[in-house]
Each structure stands twice: as structure tokens, then as C-alpha cells.
């Protein structure tokens, strides 16, 4: 039973049908590699994250600033990570009707 479950998980990951996209600002190198990102690229992302203001990326497009990540790699990375919510956006306020 346990082997069957693990096999199904591996098949899901290998087919690119991961259960959830990664959080660019929280994913570990190991999680990125498991999602199909090369170990070298994952290590570069983790290292670059440390140099970002507040230790976080504000846009996935910032990955282009990392040496060795070009358009081809970016097209692959966009599908691996959740979009980063834009902070500072005006949030709707709850109605104050009584």
C-alpha cells in the first residue's frame, strides 16, 4: 500500500502534474528539484533570494536578473511557481451597513 502511494506520487511529479505550484519565496532547493527544476538553477534561486530586499522576490520576472536564467529557463519556471501577489494594491473594504 505504502509503495503504491509513493509510486503514484512519483508518477505525478514526473509527469509535470504536481499537486501545487511552488512559493518562490519559501520553496527549498529540494522542493524545487522535486518539481523538476535543475539543482544548479534551484541553488541560484535560493542564493538570490537571500540578496533580495526583505529576503523576498516581488515578481517572478526578477529571476531573469540571475546569471544563467534566460528566456528559455524563464518559460519553464513560470509554470513551476505560484504568481506572487502584488502588495500595495487597494483592497476592498467591508461594507459598514447596519
Outline of the structure:
This protein is 41% helix and 0% strand.
Description:
With 98 residues, this protein is mostly helical. It has a domain at 21-84: Photosystem II 12 kDa extrinsic protein (DNA polymerase, domain 1), CATH 1.10.150.320. The protein is 41% helix and 0% strand. The protein contains 4 helices and no strands. The chain has helices at 2-14, 29-34, 39-51, 71-78. It is globular, with a radius of gyration of 17 Å. The model is unreliable at 4-11 and 88-92 (pLDDT under 50).
Number of strands: 0
**Structural class per helix/strand content?**
mainly alpha
The CATH superfamily of the domain at 21-84 bears the name: Photosystem II 12 kDa extrinsic protein
Estimate the global geometry from the Cα principal axes.
Answer: globular
Low-confidence stretches: 4-11, 88-92
What letter string, H or E per element, gives the SSE order? Answer: HHHH
Supply the CATH architecture of the domain at 21-84.
Orthogonal Bundle
Helix amount, in percent? Answer: 40-55%
Tally of individual helices: 4
Biggest sheet architecture? none
Strand percent estimate:
under 5%
What would you call the quaternary organization? single chain
Average pLDDT figure: 78
CATH fold topology of the domain at 21-84? DNA polymerase, domain 1
**Separation of termini?**
56 Å
CATH class membership of the domain at 21-84: Mainly Alpha
Rg on CA atoms, Å = 17 Å
